Amino acid sequence: MGARTPGGSGLIGRERERDLVSAFLAGLSDGGRILHLSGVPGIGKTAVVRFAVDAAARQEVPVLSTSWVPDERGLRYAALHGLLRPRLPRLRQLPPEQRSLLESAFAGYAAEPEPEPEHLARSALRLLALAPGPVLVCVDDFDRLDAASRDTIGHMARLCGPTQVSLVVAERAAPAAWLPADALTTVLTPLPAAEARELVHRSRPSAAHAEAELVLAVAQGNPLALTELSLGGNGLRDAAGFGMLPATPRLADAYAEDLRALSAAGHGVLLTAALSTSSAVQEILDAGACLPGGTQAARAGLAEIAERGLVGVREHHIRFPEPLIRTAVLHTASAARRMAAHAALGQSVTDPAHAAWHTAQCVTGADEELAKRLESLAEGPWPGAGLLRALAALECAARLSADPERRADRLLRAAELACHHGLVEQARQHARGIDPDELGDLGSAMLLWLHDLVPGNLPVGRERIAQLCSAARAVAPAHPVLAQKLLHAAAGRCWWQQAGATDRDLVVRTLKELRTPPWGTRDIAVLALTDPLSVSHLPLQTSEPPDPDQRLLLGQAAHLTGDLAQAAVFLQEAEAAARADGRHGRLPHILAARALGEIWRGSEWRTAEAMAAEGRMIATGLEHRNFAVRAIGAQGVLAALQGRHDRARQCAAEIDKASLHLGQGQHLSLATLTRVLTASGTGRYAEAYTQLRASFTELLTPYSFEQFWGLAFLVEAALPAGEADDARAVVEQIDHRTRTGRSPLLERILDYAGAVLAPDEEAENRYRAALGDGSEQWPLLYAMTQFSHGVWLRRRRRVLESRAPLTTAESVFRSLGAMPRAELAAAELRAAGLADTTESGNTAAQVLSPQQLTIARLAAQGLTNRAIAERLQLSPRTVASHLYQIFPKLDVTSRAQLAEKLDPR
User: Fold this and answer.
1) Tell me: the pLDDT tens digits for 95-116?
2) What DSSP designation does 280 have?
3) Of 226-230, 534-538, 802-806, 812-816, where does mean pLDDT reach its minimum?
4) Within 13 Å and on the Cβ side, how many CA atoms surround 489?
């Protein structure tokens, strides 16, 4: 048990224990030593013992081990015999008296007189020392061994100093008086969060992120619990009432001996305390008084379990020093005993909702009053494992509901709650309890909503949009909130599937039939998904106090309309709230959107990369395929901008495959953008322009915010691709169509486009406007604008003036991590006559002009003459002429030799 990987490859973490074991083993040849390990059940003592065994074996030190075996309970010297068994064939080499002591101990009957533990220990040490060299003895579960073996091994520890026999002893108890003064001791503590998370991932690599987080919250760093606990497939059980997961047989076995020795009264009170949602001593004693034995037995039982350290009593409340023992107690108790304890607690617990929980565990029929009281347990927030209590309460309340509509509503709440927290399978289980035949339109509407809400369901076609709108109309009079959710789902399908005007108009028309301005938060999100330009002018405000759902919906609306600054605020708040409440199901949506926004807003892209990676990981685990693809899209765009072109192409291919599988074209825009940036990053501007221009054949679809992003790169590629006039036409149409409402980013992109494509007589003023106040808030676009301005100045022979904007562009590009653009800026600076301090001692830099050096480097990277010409805005003939002069200067005859000569960046 403990923090050991399933494959036995070693410990996770435990650096202090590793170092202690290594130091201990290093001194074995100096004489007998003791290493004592202690800690609560499941904390990892066995894993450290095994680590010591493996380390000793690598040093070719003989190892003999023993541990507690349940079937040998009560057999005297059973553990000692198991320890010495490999050396018993040498028993005859011992002096007769010592041989006789060991033989009588292992004879299987009580010897007369009983061997003295000290004499027996000396005999055992003598037997172990017959072989030359150090010997390591490893004893696990020392405190659970039979008493005779325990006494003997304890004396061995005190007597081993002059020998070459050393002991590693692991037990629950803290270091005891029997240990010699020079013994090394350590108390194992729970694993830190990072190591606990790694252990959960290694032991259950397929576990969803939300379930893993729930296990982390419940296990509290206990390695055995981290590897054993899970939600399972049998629904939530009694343990959910106090926010715990059910124990497995292995976890329960860790406490079996503690429970075995208890009296009937001790068992009864311990079970009652373990089940109780109240920690008040008097309420638990009152419940115990209702069980066999009455008040007197309950008090005696409480005193017994307190004396054994199973519980602590402080200020009239019971605390469990080891919370996991509660689930172990439930695992070993019969259903009848648990129900009896619940019934007693239902009468004694004073909190109405908690009393209802206990009573409900014993009720088989419908009870609406009890169900209403249970529902209050599902009110948020749900920190840590509190979610388990809420889900179990809703599940139980649904079971007690006589009215089918109330039952379905409670199951719907449970499914939504589970889904928002990332517990996908639990959400599906609750959804399966809703019977559409029993509820008609309402049941069908609920299932339609859940099909869209719960990730991982089979894709459906665009016909689902009309079905969702029809369902919203049907339920709106009696269930307006559900109708809003259905319309939001329909609008989401319009966006993901890039639906045509007919479907989008249907959603907007249905919204306006059922709702009236001023629009609520979800209404604005519906409009942002179907016609973002129509709401780009609306103020986005949350209620007071802000609601987490509102934050997410407004963040979505701001993101869709291109207002990335406001989206970042809302989404950051939504992320903080989701993490605090454990709503892991919300994180893929939030992280994918934030990662894409950070590409434009971030001053360096490590944050965006981390968000995209985490969003993809969580989305994949929760089967949120759409958001997983969005996160891959963010990774692809970042990789292309950073010059990691193979990675970018891989991401684009993954997006294509996923889009085909999901039947949703929305993802393809990010694949296209990734390929365009890969092409432009390698100097293939004509190819980049052609690919991106196809995205503007139908200008300003409702999904225009990504077109706006692409507009900046379309304009960037236009001049070197010779498409300036065509690009101006695209920009003019966008400028005309968006005059009624533009996001700050779109304003900056249009300013950039206007400067880059302006005639010479207007360019100076245009660049001044594009680089005005606030332009630094968009670092990538700011650097692109500075670069274009610097190139424009240099092309007009204003070389000295060009250096400042080019230097700024190079600095910002490097800070972001946009290395291809940074190198291009550096090349322009060299062409502007600014010496590169990194070139000292470089022969090529000494014999070539700055322009020639730039061309030589691009050629060495594998670019064709045409690609070099596009990047540097030269003619292919000029490039060829330069290369004709470069080759003899560097004494090379091929591009391969040129690459070796230059060691290109």
Assistant:
1) 999 999 998 888 865 556 778 8
2) B
3) 534-538
4) 28
Which has the closest alpha carbon to 805: 839, 846, 763? 763
Contact 764, 796 (CB under 8 A): no
Q: Three-class SS string for 293-333?
A: CHHHHHHHHHHHHHHCCCCEEECCEEECCCCHHHHHHHHHC
pTM of the model: 0.82
Q: What is the pLDDT of residues 579-595, one digit of tens each?
A: 988 899 999 999 999 99
CB 570, CB 539: distance < 8 Å: no
State the average pLDDT over residues 228-247.
79
Which is it for the CA torsion 699, 705, 708, 710, positive or negative?
negative
| Residue 868 · residue 874 · CB < 8 Å | yes
Distances (CA, A) of 468 to 349, 405, 472, 504, 702: 45, 20, 6, 12, 20
- pLDDT at residue 6 tops 50: no
Question: b/e per residue, 870-893, with b = 16+ CB within 10 A?
Answer: bbbebeeeebeebbeebbeebebe
Looking at this protein, which amino acid is placed at residue 19?
Answer: D
Q: Is the confidence at residue 7, as pLDDT, over 50?
A: no
Q: Which residues lie below 8 Å from residue 10, measured CB to CB, with a gap of 6+?
A: 4, 51, 54
338: which 2 tokens?
């648990």
Residue 4, SS3 per DSSP: strand
Q: 899: pLDDT confidence band, cut at 50, 70 and 90?
A: confident
Q: How is 823-888 classified by DSSP, letter by letter? A: HHHHHHHHHTT---GGGTT-HHHHHS-HHHHHHHHHHHTT--HHHHHHHHT--HHHHHHHHHHHHH
Give 213-279 as a 3 state SS string: HHHHHHHCCCHHHHHHCCCCCCCCCHHHHHCCCCCCHHHHHCCHHHHHCCCHHHHHHHHHHHHCCCC
Determine the pLDDT at residue 210.
Answer: 84
DSSP state of 350: -
Amino acid at 530: T
Amino acid of residue 277:
T
Percent of the chain with pLDDT over 70: 94
Strand partners of residue 185: 36
Is 278 a residue whose pLDDT tops 60? Answer: yes
Which residue type occupies 477?
Answer: P
Element of type H or E holding 167: strand 165-171
- Alpha-carbon gap, residue 718 to 525, rounded angstroms: 35
pLDDT tens profile 636-655:
999 999 999 999 999 999 99
Of 72-76, 93-97, 539-543, 862-866, where does the model show the most confidence?
93-97
Selection from 67, 59, 64, 74 nearest residue 29 by Cα? 59
pLDDT of residue 154: 93
What is the amino acid identity at position 637? Answer: V
- How many Cβ atoms sit within 10 Å of the Cβ of residue 522? 21
In sequence order, the 6+-apart residues with CB closer than 8 A to the CB of 669 are 695, 703, 706, 707, 710
Predicted pLDDT of residue 8: 41
User: In the prediction, which pLDDT does 903 show?
Assistant: 62
Residues 6+ away with beta carbon under 8 Å from 477: none
CA distances from 153 to 63, 122, 139, 344 (A): 15, 10, 9, 46
